[in-house]
Design goal:
The structure holds 2 protein chains of 2 kinds. Chain A is mainly α. In chain A, 71% of the residues lie in helices and 1% in strands. Chain A has a domain of 241 residues: ABC transporter involved in vitamin B12 uptake, BtuC (Orthogonal Bundle), CATH 1.10.3470. In chain A, strands 1-2 form a two-stranded antiparallel sheet.
Amino acid sequence: MRLKKNREIPKPDQSIRILAFPWRRLVIALMISIVCCLFAVSIGSVSIDPITTLTITLSRLPFIDFPQTWPKSLDTILWNIRFPRVALALLVGASLSIAGATYQALFRNPLADPYFIGVASGAALGATIVFLSGIPFTIGNVSLLPMAAFIGGIGAVAMAYLIASKSTGTGLPTLILAGVAIGSFATAVTSILMIRSEPDLRPLLSWIMGGFIRAKWSDSIFLLPYFTLGVILILVYSRILNSLQLDEEYATSIGVNVEKTKKILILVSTLITAAAVSFSGLIGFVGLVAPHAVRLLWGTDYRTLIPMSAVVGGSFLVISDLIARTVVSPGELPVGIITAIFGAPFFIYLLIKKRSEIS
Amino acid sequence: MAAFVCLTVISCSAPKPEQPIPASSPQPPEKVTYTPGKPLAPEKPLPPLPSSKPAAKKPKRPSQPADPAIRRKIPAPNISEKEILVATFPVSIIDRDGREILFEEPPQRIVAFDSAALETLFAIGEGSRIVATHDYVNYPRAAASILRVGDAFNMDVEAIVSLEPDLVFLFYPSFKEQLEDAGLKVLLVPTIEDDFRKMSQHFRMWGSITGAVNEAEDLAKNFEARIKEIEDTLAPYDEGPSVFQDVGGLWAPGDDTLIGNVFQLLKLKNISGEIEGYAQISPEILVERNPQYIIASYQDYFSSDRAFKDILAVKNEAIYTPSADFLSISGPRFIEGVEELANFIYPGLLR
């Protein structure tokens, strides 16, 4: 599927007008995602009735005090387990979606997702090393696992980038190929480590399949600056992305420093992806599908696409995680399974619906 | 070596019938290193097990020479009295698929592709028959020099064939056919994953295969006696504390698992009991069910997480970190893991 060229291509000379920003859509979408979050917070494997949920939530706000009539464990469950979980799912979903959207334009490839140039394989290798080496996952308050995954992810892309810039054509195709090569290599090393290891592989496998089971507030706080920086930078470059997704030469002809822009965008997307992956594992499908769903619904203008992808991807992951943690209660499923099981049919439905609308 | 054991047994027990003496091993028999001392013999001789055991149902060993046609099957016959057993061959063992594997004589070159089997063989003094095992074996120390021919996913079939083993023991079936096609005798008995009491049957099985029936019987009886002691000690109590085991990433066992059965023996209430097998459990459930004890490899994992700070086990620092992998191998050391756990939860109650 080529990106749709014929729909809503902004004119390049269009200046950034603050009014052109899709405020109304964004507000509606944000409200929907807030509803999703509240819904997700009020449901869980331990049932807490909505009034108690609301009371506990409100009592956390400043200046509001309720006499504590609920068991302390409910407070812990809501405030230290469910809220951080929903927050992290929202942030990770949003991060992966904007990274995916950016890659799709940069590489002019509809199949591009945040893991396109090796982040995922590198992060998985980093996590596997920590898992299987017998190092404790946390030393004091520092979690080693996310750190290792983050370094692994960044490292893989950095290597791919170095290889691409050393070779003759510094174009993006070389970067994709180098990313694929590095990714395969990292995956192979991960497999060797897993095969040669004695410990129980289930925890590692469920990390690789992705999930928010151990989400903490600190995870979201770590992720937030990357996400904020990413959204701002990508929005700043969204006009350039609009022209890049069509043609590099065209972008150059209108005075865009293509090489520099690409570098910045690749760096930013990789950072957000690595940060997201390091806490949640490899959650597939969100970063690929959320931007496409937004494209199908609202067109290909990146000034709309980026904020809407963030909102849609975030909400989608919040709901997926809700399903993952309730459907086999008291057990949990890796959220990556849910995103694919529910995301794929939804996406196919969108494709068919849009096709019949157009014809 | 087994021949050696059998010979001595026969010579010192006069009224015993003549037995078909297994062919002596091609190599000069090593000195049996097995000492029936500390870990194997019960600390105090226990009375014969109560009548709940179907001891009376099974006929005593026939006084006539055993007809080769009457083959002993596993589970081995119940012997309630202390008596000297005599290895009889042929022995037939029922494998996983219900097939009979026949042993005319003790195998001399065993590929023991299973930690529990290897530890059992060493515990009954037959470790020198093992010619190869898998990568993860780390006990006993005498096994360190044994050749490794594979791991949980792979098996070096060529290397195994070149060793010319007369028995390959497996606990998972992936390579069974390939080995059998190579003309090897394969015995597949899956690892015990539910009732740990079945372990004594496995011990006896190895005794009858190798001929070290007395040593195996001692090992099995010792195991049963130590289980019984825990059972008897805890008999007056209705229910012990609640417990949660994290095998990593909040994966926890259900009641139907090996460790779930140990919890039942120790009267511990497993908070993830309704799970079948193993599953990842929701942290919400963990907080709500508020276990009094947590079993985990890493203590920090729980104590450093704010979400878990109000759990009784975390507050009371009742997080148990097993000292070794006793409870993960269903072999002779398993009971030590059970006792260690029992002593952690009920300090001073046992012995």
